[in-house]
Design brief:
The protein is α/β, with parallel strands linked by helices. It is built from five helices and six strands, in the order E-E-E-H-E-E-H-E-H-H-H. It has a six-stranded mixed sheet, covered by helices on one side. Strand 4 and strand 5 form a beta hairpin.
Length: 157
């Protein structure tokens, strides 16, 4: 996912499918309670979203052609977006909301035990390893984060 700084106005539908990539955008709304999700139409994604997010925590706005979601569904929605779309743009998120430390790169809470760190690394490696059809850049990020966390855990930092 890529974070975009403060942008004004809504992104246009045509910009969400540029250069053959399937791109979704997730906007942090000023109230801090809701997220606005704009995605190209995908029946499978819509069904997955409906199964994963309770109906009281999501709403479809037919006028704006977007979903509004409760902020506490962020992790769940990001997981769905990563599975379905080539790229997700995070728009207008405060820096405190988007963590880029090694722990978050492995989808872990800081201070997780070594066994959990290893399990998370193995699971992500199976998904993103280039020999299994994954992305080399993402795998390098995962490897770097794993090495950094192992160093922290072994040195007691």
């Amino acid at each position: 996912m890529r974070q975009i700084g403060q942008r004004t106005g809504r992104s246009s539908r045509s910009s969400l499918a540029t250069f053959g990539k399937r791109v979704a955008s997730l906007r942090y709304l000023p109230s801090g309670l809701m997220l606005q999700l704009e995605v190209p139409f995908d029946r499978d994604f819509t069904e997955s979203l409906k199964k994963s997010v309770q109906s009281k925590k999501r709403i479809w706005d037919g006028n704006d052609q977007c979903w509004y979601l409760c902020k506490d569904q962020f992790d769940r929605v990001c997981h769905l977006l990563d599975q379905t779309f080539d790229e997700t743009l995070l728009l207008d998120f405060p820096a405190a909301e988007v963590s880029t430390n090694s722990w978050s790169k492995l989808w872990l809470i800081e201070g997780a035990p070594l066994e959990v760190v290893r399990a998370s690394y193995k699971a992500l490696a199976q998904i993103y390893h280039p020999d299994r059809g994954g992305d080399l850049g993402i795998m390098q990020t995962i490897n770097g984060a794993y090495k950094e966390i192992l160093g922290e855990l072994k040195n007691g930092d």
